[in-house]
């Protein structure tokens, strides 16, 4: 019977499936199988090679399950490149805002793109800032500029789209997800929104905000301020 144990352990050690998918401890396997054989002999039961093999494979599966539980799960989150920007419902207009921040120079390019419910381009605005603290502050400034631009055009129905989810959470849900240093910018934006009868703030993925992203980067590199 111990010969069968040695054969099974050797087979499990060389078998590609357990070796590849679970870190099977051969010494622990041998100990477990030997104890199993002794237990069966003690109970005056005849241990067939098939039964021992089945028990061994069950133990290998158990070890594999333990290894799977112990290994940390790494979840990768990517923008869905197949998602496309959708125009707003009539009579709303949409302003997409984005910022491009350079941490080495502190320069920030801001871009705003205005489109109607048919998806037609209606205009754009760009600005360049110096001395911006971080990328979050840059995105908050871009959102505030979008609100001010909408108010200056006396829009009554506008959707403000940003690819920083914290802004949407702060504006629509009052969630404390923005750094306190940048809250004043969004509080000013909220005060300004009181002059717009119908507005919405939406988070969109970066893939949907690509035109504003490209324009913001161009603006930062060339230091363009234009409306």
From TrEMBL:
<dbReference type="GO" id="GO:0003676">
    <property type="term" value="F:nucleic acid binding"/>
</dbReference>
<dbReference type="InterPro" id="IPR052929">
    <property type="entry name" value="RNase_H-like_EbsB-rel"/>
</dbReference>
<feature type="domain" description="RNase H type-1">
    <location>
        <begin position="96"/>
        <end position="218"/>
    </location>
</feature>
<dbReference type="InterPro" id="IPR044730">
    <property type="entry name" value="RNase_H-like_dom_plant"/>
</dbReference>
<protein>
    <recommendedName>
        <fullName>RNase H type-1 domain-containing protein</fullName>
    </recommendedName>
</protein>
<dbReference type="InterPro" id="IPR002156">
    <property type="entry name" value="RNaseH_domain"/>
</dbReference>
<dbReference type="Pfam" id="PF13456">
    <property type="entry name" value="RVT_3"/>
</dbReference>
<dbReference type="InterPro" id="IPR012337">
    <property type="entry name" value="RNaseH-like_sf"/>
</dbReference>
<dbReference type="GO" id="GO:0004523">
    <property type="term" value="F:RNA-DNA hybrid ribonuclease activity"/>
</dbReference>
<dbReference type="InterPro" id="IPR036397">
    <property type="entry name" value="RNaseH_sf"/>
</dbReference>
């Amino acid at each position: 019977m111990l010969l069968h144990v040695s054969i099974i352990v050797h087979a499990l050690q060389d078998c590609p499936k357990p070796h590849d998918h679970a870190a099977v401890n051969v010494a622990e396997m041998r100990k477990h199988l030997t104890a199993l054989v002794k237990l069966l002999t003690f109970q005056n039961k005849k241990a067939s090679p098939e039964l021992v093999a089945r028990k061994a494979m069950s133990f290998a599966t158990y070890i594999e399950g333990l290894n799977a539980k112990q290994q940390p799960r790494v979840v990768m989150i990517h923008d869905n490149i197949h998602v496309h920007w959708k125009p707003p419902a009539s009579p709303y207009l949409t302003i997409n805002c984005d910022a491009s921040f350079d941490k080495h120079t502190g320069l920030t390019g801001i871009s705003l793109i205005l489109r109607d419910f048919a998806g037609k381009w209606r205009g754009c605005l760009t600005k360049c800032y110096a001395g911006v603290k971080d990328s979050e502050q840059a995105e908050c400034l871009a959102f505030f500029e979008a609100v001010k631009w909408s108010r200056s055009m006396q829009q009554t129905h506008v959707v403000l789209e940003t690819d920083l989810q914290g802004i949407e959470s702060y504006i629509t849900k009052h969630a404390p997800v923005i750094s306190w240093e940048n809250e004043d910018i969004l509080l000013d934006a909220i005060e300004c929104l009181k002059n717009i009868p119908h507005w919405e703030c939406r988070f969109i993925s970066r893939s949907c905000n690509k035109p504003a992203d490209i324009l913001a980067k161009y603006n930062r590199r060339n230091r363009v301020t234009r409306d």
